[in-house]
Specification:
Blueprint (H helix, E strand, L loop, with lengths): L3 H16 L4 H20 L16 H41 L12 H4 L3
Helix pairs in contact: 2-3
Amino acid sequence: MDQTPKRETVLKGQIQVVANSDNTICKLIDSRIQKFLENYLASSYQKSLPAVPGGLGPIQKELEEIAVKYVRLVNYNKMVFSPYYDAVLGKILTKEEYQLAGNTSKGGNLIDCSCIYLL
């Protein structure tokens, strides 16, 4: 009895499951990549770079290349569009600063302006 067609079917099924964006492993990897990029962006102002999250070692080189390009894009957008974003953020923060004043311990968050420059 030839097991090749059965193995092929099982392998195709496994690939389809992993390719599904609702897959738990895909969500975990996506979360780790997003967090790494956020940390990389934050660390671009410091000297130490964030460690590559567990499980992403095999793609470390590519991930770091993407992170460098990501930081360049954010910095470029910040340089070019900061006058526009500053005006918009100024209005938003002025409008909401009274709501946020004293409420930061109750879950109020200030906007991370670095991420705004990607919009």
